[in-house]
Every structure is written in structure tokens, then in C-alpha cells.
Design a protein that fits this description.
- The protein has a three-stranded antiparallel sheet, with no helix packed on it. A two-stranded antiparallel sheet has the order 3-4.
- The chain starts with 16 loop residues before the first helix and ends in an 11-residue tail after the last helix.
- It has helices at 17-32, 41-58, 68-77, 83-98, 141-149, 154-166, 170-174, 218-229, 249-262, 275-286, 293-300, 305-316, and strands at 181-182, 189-192, 195-196, 202-203, 212-215.
- It has twelve helices and five strands.
- Helix 5 (141-149) runs antiparallel to helix 6 (154-166).
- A hairpin with a 6-residue loop joins strand 1 and strand 2.
Length: 327
């Protein structure tokens, strides 16, 4: 199977979508195995979800038959999806198609047909609703502590406290190892060196900037020491279930939902277990700990300065005094 068209022959060999997806999948997996690309298997999993939508509406379409009209019709078929998600699916389809561009000197793959017309207009994008700001008079330290205390699992409690106190990612908290905690320093530190990927395996942090050191409170330090003392001495990853596997993120979300529901509350921002990271960063900006997006990005292990400036600095940075969750 391929798009090779022998010279001087009016023949176009079919290129099934499944073939192009297989080519693209191999490229993605190859990139994910290279540490310098910044491409992760988590991203590939997102592309795989996009492909499910493409396959659902297109079947194993022959890509040689795909033209502007076909693409426009496809976009209409996914019109009920969120605008931004719809664009992501479109771009994944484009990249799949792009694996065949330049493979032959003949039609139909001289250019990427997805790039030959405008399928999304700026005016079609719905205006974003202004997301409400967290009311920190209500969503204060005590409320966060109360929610976490309702979680039945001690391991889950500690992971949520670690997120709420350091704003680390859930995947980074789940990957915590004995070596990552520096308790003998004047200020105890949690050093982020790993994360748990979608295959529930130990992996590098989400971004290259993810390697960082985060301060923790003396109180959390004592709780972590007591917890680690209850574990087998040779267990390096401290948050493992009875089968020796990393705790399931979906179950953590379920436990959090039940804890919030038991208090008759609704999280002010629907970020699932990411809520604690979001809450902590927002509060630090509100208290004036961070006023510069670059400094905050460094702390968060993030690279998207625009996102951080818009969603945290501009939204919450107001005063100068700094108060941490642990105080």
C-alpha cells in the first residue's frame, strides 16, 4: 500500500486512512522515545482519541479521494464538539494526511489539502465565558484541609496535601520517591524528578522545566516521615497500592468527588485532582508571592508564559504579603 504513482502512468494507488495512521503512529512513538523532542506518549494518547473521531466519521477512507469538500463535510459532522477540540481533531487529521505529502511527484499528495482552504473562521469561535475567580474568603486553608481530611486513604491525603502545598502536578505527586524528599535541610524540600505517565509507568516530568525543588512545611514533612516509616524499607516509590502499582488517578478523582459531595460543596474550578495545584498557585498570586509570570512558570515547571500570565498573574496578583497553605 502506498501513494507511489509510476511515471507516465495515469494510476493512483489507494492510501487507506488506517495505513497513514499507522505511519503517523510510528513517527509519534519514535519521537516520544527521544528525550530531546519534548513529545510525550501522553500527547500521542490525545492524538489517538482524535483519531477515534476521525475513524468514526470517515471509516477507512482512501486519502486520495479526500478533497476540500470532503474535509468541509467532515468538519460539519463533528460540529457538536467543543470548538477548540474540533480544531485539534482537524489538525490531527491534517498531520496524518501530511505523512503522504511529498512521497510522490504526482497528485493527490503534492500539497496538504487541509492547508488549501480556511475551514475555521475566527468569528465562528464562541466567545469565552469569564470564568469566576476563586473566593479565597470561602476557599481558604481550612476548607482545603477539611476536604482532604474527608479522603479515606492516607496515601491520597498525602498526595493531595503535597499538591495543595507545592502546586506540583498529580502525576508528579504520584511518582514521589524516598530520594525526592530532603528532610534534613533547614527548609524541607520535595524534589521533582519524575511523573507517572498514562501507562502508569515512571517517566520524566511533563516538561523539561519540570525538574525543580519545592518547599514543604514541617507539618507535612512529619506526616510523610511517619507514612514512609510504615512502608517496606526497600520500597522507593512511596505511593503504591497493594499490588505494587501506582495509584489509579480515576480512583483518586472519585474519592475527591465524594469528599466534596459529603460536605455539600462544589469545587469553584472543575479541574479534578488538578484543583489543588490550581488553587495553590492562584492563592499565592492573590497573596502577592508571585507577580512575574516567568518566576511562577519556573516554580510550576511550566513553559506556557502566556497561559500563566492570563490565568494567574493578571487574574489574581493583587497584594504583596505571602501566605502558604502550610502556615
Amino acid at each position: 500500500i502506498g501513494n507511489i504513482n509510476p511515471k507516465n502512468m495515469n494510476v493512483i494507488i489507494s492510501v487507506p486512512l488506517s495505513y497513514a495512521w499507522n505511519v503517523y503512529s510510528k513517527k509519534c512513538k519514535s519521537r516520544a522515545n527521544e528525550p530531546t523532542t519534548g513529545f510525550s506518549m501522553t500527547t500521542f494518547k490525545e492524538y489517538s482519541e482524535h483519531f477515534k473521531h476521525i475513524e468514526k466519521h470517515c471509516g477507512d477512507v482512501d486519502l486520495t479521494k479526500v478533497d476540500v469538500e470532503y474535509i468541509a463535510d467532515f468538519v460539519k459532522k463533528i460540529d457538536d464538539l467543543d470548538f477548540d477540540y474540533k480544531k485539534k481533531i482537524f489538525h490531527t487529521f491534517s498531520r496524518i494526511y501530511d505523512t503522504q505529502v511529498g512521497m510522490s511527484a504526482t497528485d493527490p499528495f503534492k500539497v496538504n489539502v487541509f492547508k488549501t482552504a480556511t475551514f475555521f473562521k475566527k468569528e465562528d469561535k464562541p466567545k469565552r465565558k469569564n470564568t469566576s475567580k476563586i473566593n479565597f474568603e470561602e476557599w481558604n486553608f481550612d476548607r482545603i484541609h477539611t476536604i482532604i481530611s474527608k479522603i479515606p486513604s492516607k496515601a491520597y491525603q498525602l498526595m493531595f496535601k503535597l499538591m495543595a502545598e507545592t502546586s506540583c502536578r498529580p502525576s508528579e505527586a504520584r511518582a514521589a520517591q524516598r530520594k525526592n524528599f530532603h528532610f534534613k535541610r533547614n527548609i524541607p524540600v520535595f524534589e521533582v524528578t519524575n511523573s507517572v505517565d498514562y501507562e502508569k509507568q515512571l517517566a520524566p516530568p511533563k516538561t523539561e522545566a519540570g525538574y525543580r525543588e519545592l518547599e514543604i512545611s514541617a507539618s507535612l514533612k512529619d506526616q510523610l516521615i511517619d507514612y514512609m516509616n510504615s512502608l517496606p524499607e526497600d520500597q522507593q516509590c512511596i505511593f503504591l497500592n497493594s499490588k505494587g502499582k501506582f495509584y489509579d488517578l480515576k480512583n483518586m478523582i472519585t474519592c475527591l468527588d465524594k469528599a466534596v459531595e459529603s460536605l455539600n460543596l462544589t469545587l469553584p474550578v472543575d479541574r479534578k485532582t488538578y484543583f489543588f495545584r490550581h488553587w495553590n498557585v492562584s492563592y499565592w498570586c492573590y497573596q502577592g508571592k508571585y507577580t512575574n509570570p516567568f518566576d511562577l512558570a519556573t516554580h510550576m515547571g511550566d513553559l506556557d508564559l502566556k497561559f500563566i500570565n492570563t490565568n494567574y498573574i493578571k487574574k489574581y496578583a493583587t497584594s504583596k504579603d505571602s501566605v502558604k497553605y502550610s502556615d
